[in-house]
Design goal:
This protein is an all-alpha fold. The protein has 14 helices and no strands. The protein has a domain of 189 residues: Orthogonal Bundle (MetI-like fold). It is globular.
Length: 333
């Protein structure tokens, strides 16, 4: 409990640091957030009034204090491009990204952990060489190329999956949480559930196959290290079956570094797999963040980065707590 409280107390400090860096970097990057507006307005006086309304004419320190004050009060500001509150945009765009990240991590974990165990238990055999070769291939191929190939094969040629989007055109469902799968289960709308599942399969595979390569390599190296420990030799000397040694004794200890990698990868995916979302027309955080950067929409970029940082810290906190649960040696520290 003391460790948990300590980590939670650091959360606002991390968010303040992220918010400050984001604020400064956005204003140091060349470009004017009113650039697009300036092309539409001839009257210079009107342009200056608009800049004053958005607080862009204030000194930098005053803009920063205003930004911190709004952040403390729970306001992330309003989008300069659309005039919509950033909190509303995040509520719309974050659920699709979370769904994509969760499904991608499930696919990556199942493939990566299974392949890592198979590779470790068949060390230096043809199965091990094949699995390692596929892992290196998955790590070497960029997401966008895998995404395009998946679309070409499974959407264009075979027609098994849709090309893009989050749910089929014309499929009706009731929005409660903006998580399609959760809303479909709550309302019992299985047509919407399976339509959303078909749409998320290809983008989740595009991300999951690459991430599975990292997980496979980490699982293999951890398993090989654990299999040479003394308690594994002691278990074998007691006559335990190989299956029991593998799943009960070896895998639990080998999963500790793998869990850390899973937390880091999941936190990274919450930032939005920008290219994958663009290829599949996925309405998530990645596209919103990219559009905000290109438009110099300060409020959108700041709000998105702060929210992603919050989720990233929370996920890593959960990983550390799970770490303490699995490893009793850490509970006294």
């Amino acid at each position: 409990m003391r460790y948990l409280i300590y980590r939670i107390l650091w959360l606002p400090v991390v968010l303040w640091a992220v918010a400050t860096l984001t604020f400064l970097v956005l204003r140091l990057v060349p470009g004017d957030p009113m650039g697009q507006v300036a092309t539409l307005i001839v009257d210079q006086g009107q342009l200056e009034r608009i800049r004053a309304e958005w607080g862009l004419t204030q000194p930098l320190w005053q803009q920063y204090l205003t930004f911190l004050g709004n952040l403390i009060s729970g306001s992330l500001g309003v989008s300069m491009a659309s005039g919509v509150p950033v909190s509303t945009l995040l509520l719309q765009k974050m659920p699709p990204t979370i769904e994509l990240a969760v499904v991608s991590m499930i696919i990556a974990t199942l493939i990566g952990v299974t392949a890592g165990i198979i590779s470790a238990t068949t060390r230096m055999r043809w199965v091990d060489v094949t699995v390692r070769g596929l892992a290196v291939l998955g790590l070497s191929i960029p997401w966008f190329w895998i995404a395009i190939m998946l679309i070409f094969v499974f959407a264009v040629r075979l027609g098994w999956f849709p090309v893009g989007g989050r749910i089929g055109v014309g499929v009706q469902y009731t929005t409660i949480t903006n998580f399609i799968f959760l809303d479909a289960i709550i309302t019992g709308n299985w047509n919407a559930f399976f339509s959303a599942l078909r749409h998320i399969t290809l983008p989740a595979l595009a991300i999951g196959l690459t991430t599975a390569g990292f997980i496979m390599r980490m699982t293999r190296s951890s398993m090989l290290e654990v299999m040479h420990r003394e308690y594994i030799r002691a278990a074998r000397s007691r006559g335990l079956r190989n299956r029991s040694i593998l799943w009960v004794h070896a895998l639990r200890n080998a999963m500790l570094p793998v869990i850390t990698l899973l937390g880091l990868q999941f936190g990274a995916l919450l930032g939005g797999a920008v290219i994958t979302e663009l290829v599949f027309s996925w309405p998530g955080m990645g596209r919103m963040l990219l559009d905000g950067i290109l438009r110099r929409d300060y409020a959108v970029v700041q709000g998105a980065v702060i929210l992603v940082a919050f989720f990233y810290v929370v996920v890593n906190l959960m990983v550390d707590v799970f770490y303490h649960t699995l490893d009793p040696r850490l509970r006294g520290r």
